[in-house]
Amino acid sequence: MTIYTGPVFEMARRQFNLTADHLEIPEDERARLLYPKRAVTVSVPIHMDDGRTEVFQGYRVQHHLTLGPTKGGTRFSANLEVGEVAALAIWMSWKCALAGLPYGGAKGGVACDPPRLSRRELEAVSRRYMQEMIPFVSPQTDVMAPDMGTDEQVMAWFMDTYSMHEGHSVNEIVTGKPVALGGTEGRREATGRGVAHLVGRACSLLEIKPQDCTAVIQGFGNVGSVTTYTLARQYGVKIVGISDHTAAIHDASGLPLEAIEAHMRRHGVLAGFTSQMGIDPHQLLLQPCDILAPCAVERVIDETNAGRLRCRILAEGANGPTTPAADEILAQRQDEVFVIPDILCNSGGVIVSYFEWVQDLQRLFWSETEVNEKLYQLLDQAFTRVVGYAGSNGVSMRNAAMAIGVQKVRAGKTLRGLFP
């Protein structure tokens, strides 16, 4: 029996078991590698604006502390549950190990719907959640970051709440906070820039010119929007399709990005931009393109559509966008579809979060140019390792990335012993 259930956790478990089979990890080692070290569930009571007291459920899962403190985002989402949080923490462990960061994976959040909360209510949820987490987090134990439904302001409230408890400013307790409070230049754009950079590396490997490519981006939040604009403006890629939770649009001749950017600044969502370019969101994934970047939520590519994807490069900006059943199909299409797996493709965010943590600990800050140079260096190293492992072992890019990450965590646990 386990408290970790649900389709997202089962997906993480299946991916791990496939990797463990490839690495021939004995059965008696697997549970310790897979299951989290700690899961915390808290009640988050706040006074609502109408005078009611409402209690939200909050979670934090710390996968392992073998290589250093845990690291991971904090998600505010109406349907959040502990199995999903655990899966995201597990993926973060492999991601950090693959990137060479001295972290274990963590994830947390509150089951709430941010658009339905006033700013005062959102602040109350944020501060009370952090207050409940204080016994379980510290700059040396678990460092939080933003995720879906949270942002720089929420991180500022987290930092202030923890700092007031400690009696002095503790900038390094969270990353992804405002630059004025010890955040780093380039953190907000890091994940999307990383996706675009790795697409560029894939194009080079496949001998494709980016300026001759078209792209479809699913999800137009922070990651998807930065990926879109970076691919278009830095690499010359033609963007032919985008979507968010309100609308999907497609035009094979290319989308008017400046007009879309202006619309997003005014309205915050794609809905209302056009009625002529609209397309069913599920069909958007199946449109012909050179680059398909799912940058929204989990499990959008499954056994029903994996065989019908018409892209050359699948760049996974989201966590867990491709199910194991879809992976089996894509493994048969490796000559057609080059997959940049999520734990590599979207690792730019945690890499620059690591840079922020290091800068806060040193009280010495870098320019955005320095941050980006260091980001691209680590991404290039990880990409080269994954491509090399996949080629020499005859496995998919996902299996290669997972194997490298799992091997590093396993080696650390073997060297340290039973407890961490």
From TrEMBL:
GO terms for molecular function: glutamate dehydrogenase (NAD+) activity; nucleotide binding. Signal peptide: none annotated. The lineage of its organism: Bacteria, Pseudomonadati, Pseudomonadota, Alphaproteobacteria, Acetobacterales. Substrate binds at residues 71, 95, 353. Gene3D superfamilies: Leucine Dehydrogenase, chain A, domain 1 (3.40.50.10860), NAD(P)-binding Rossmann-like Domain (3.40.50.720). Belongs to the Glu/Leu/Phe/Val dehydrogenases family. The keyword Transmembrane helix does not apply. It comes from the Bacteria. SUPFAM superfamilies: Aminoacid dehydrogenase-like, N-terminal domain (SSF53223), NAD(P)-binding Rossmann-fold domains (SSF51735). Residues 184-417 form the Glutamate/phenylalanine/leucine/valine/L-tryptophan dehydrogenase C-terminal domain. InterPro entries: Aminoacid_DH-like_N_sf, Glu/Leu/Phe/Val/Trp_DH, Glu/Leu/Phe/Val/Trp_DH_C, Glu/Leu/Phe/Val/Trp_DH_dimer, Glu/Leu/Phe/Val_DH_AS, Glu_DH, NAD(P)-bd_dom_sf, NAD_bind_Glu_DH. One of its GO terms (biological process) is L-glutamate catabolic process. This is Glutamate dehydrogenase.
